[in-house]
Amino acid sequence: MRLTRSRFRLAVSLFATATVAATAALVGTVPAQAAAGCRVTYTVTNQWPGGFGASVDLTNLGDPLTGWRLTWSFSAGQVIDQLWNGTVTQSAGRVTVTNAGWNGTLGSGASTQFGFGASWNNAANPVPVDFALNGVPCTGRTTSPTEPPTTAPPTTTPPTTTPPTTAPPTTAPPTTVPPTTAPPASGALDQTSTVGRVKAVGSSAQYTWPGVYFEGRFRGTGVGIVLNDAQNDYAVQIDGATVATLVTPGRTTYWVRNLANAEHTVRLAKRTESPWAAGEFGGLVAASGGAILARPAPRSRQIEFIGDSWTAGYGNMSTTRDCNSNGGVTRNSNADVTFGALTAQSLNADYQLIAWSGLGMVRNYNGGGTDNFRTYYETDLQALWNSTTWQNPGTWKPQLVVVGLGINDFSTALNPGERWSTVDQLAADYRTAYLAFIDKLRSRYGPDTFIVLTYPDLSPTTALASSVQQIVQTRTSRGDTRIRSLYYDDNALGLDKLGCDWHPSRRDDQLLAGALTRFVNTLPLTW
C-alpha cells in the first residue's frame, strides 16, 4: 500500500528573544525636552518552513504618551503578513507599527504588546536591532530633560480596562456592530450553544481549533451572523441545510434572508485550520420584525476526537491529490464533513475536533520541529502568542474519546540527526508517551469514558499497528476495561485517498465515519 503522507504544518518553538531599549527626547507626542526612554522585547514564538510568529513587548520608560509608533528594520527579507494589536506598514525591510485605537495611551512604565505572523527565507531570521519609538533609537535607559518642560505633559491616564488577552484580528476590534445592523440582544455565547474550545472576548468568542461550531435559534425571515475573520472559511446552515460557504469573510455581518416567517435554527461551523490566527464570532442579529430566541440545549452525548490531518479534514473536499491548481489545501478543507463530525452527527452527539495537521505523538511529519501534539493538546488557542490552558467550564464530559495519532510519527523514514537511530527506538518512545497521554485523559475525564485508539494502514511498516495494539494490551492488563483499538483497513473500506496530498477525500470520510459508527455501536456506552 502507499505511504500516507501528511502535510508539514507545525510550529517550532524557538523562544528566541532579544531585548533592546531607547533613550532620547521623543518627538511628536510629548513636549520638547520631556523625559524619554523605552524598552522592546522581541520574541520569535514559533517558526515553520516559510513562516514564523513573533511577539513584541513595548515598555514606555519616559513621560506619558497618547500615541506611539515603533519602527525597525528586517535584514533578511522577512515580510509581515498579518499583525494584531496595532497597524503595520512595511517598505522593503523597514517596518512601522502604530498603536490600535484602544492601546495608544502609554503611561510612564506602562507596557503594551502586539504580535504578528510573517514569512522568511528558510535560511536566516535574525532579530532586528534598530527599534525606535516615535523616531528615537532604543537603549533601555531614561533621559531626563536638561531644563524643565515649558508645557505640562499629557494628563490622559492609561485605560482602566485591561487590553484583550487574546490576539485581535488584523484590524482594530469594532466598538459597535457593523453598520446597517442592530446590535445583538446579548453576547455570542449567550445566544448560541457551543462545546468548542472558545475564549470570550467582550461579547464575542475567539477560537482556533478546526470544526468549532455555534448553534442558535431565531424567529423571523432572516438572520445576520457577525464575524471578524480574514483567515478561515465557514459553513452556514439553516434548519440543517447548508446555505452558504463563507471564504475568509473578514469583518462583516453575513445575512440569510427571505426565509419563511417562522422559528428556525442556525449553525455556523469553522471549516479550516488556523493554529496561529483566531477567528471571532460576534453573535446573531435578527431581521426586522424577528427575534433571537433562547439557545438550543446541549446534547447529552459528547465525543472528543483527537488527531492530525485526518481528523482535521486536510484537503478532504478535493478530487485531486495535487491541490496547487484548485485553490490549495485550505480552500479544499472542511472539518464539518470529516469522519469525526459525521460520526457525532449520526449519533446525535456534540463534539470537539482537537486536531493539528503534521503533528505526531513524539515525532512530527518527516522529523520536523521540537514541539509535538502533546505540547498543544491542552491549549485554548493553540499556537497564538497568548494562548493558555483551556479551562473546561465543567460541561465538557465526553463519554467517548477517539484518538488517531501516529501517522506522522511513522509514515516517513528517520533522518540523520534525529534522536532515534531505529524505528524500534521510536516505537518505544511512542508507546511510553501514548500511555502517559492516556493517563492524562483518564485524569481529565475519569474511568468511565471509553477511549478508542484508531490507526490506518501504513504498509510496509507495522510499527504503528503493533504499538497501538501493545498500548491497549498494557492498559487492559492494568485494569482499564474501557479502552479499545480500531484499524482502518484501506482495502476493505475502499478508500481512494483523493484529498490533497493523498489524504482522505470527502467520500473517504463518509466511509471512515460508517466504520467508526458501527464500531461505537458495539461498545457498552452508557449515554
From TrEMBL:
Residues 31-141 form the CBM2 domain. Residues 135-192 are annotated as: Disordered. Residues 1-24 form the signal peptide. InterPro entries: CBD2, CBM2/CBM3_carb-bd_dom_sf, CBM2_carb-bd_dom_sf, CBM2_CS, CE2_N, CtCE2-like_dom, GDSL, PCW_deacetylase/CE. It comes from Micromonospora antibiotica. This is Cellulose binding domain-containing protein. Keywords: Carbohydrate metabolism, Glycosidase, Hydrolase, Polysaccharide degradation, Signal. It holds the Pfam family Lipase_GDSL. PROSITE patterns: CBM2, CBM2_A. Residues 146-182 have a biased composition (Pro residues).
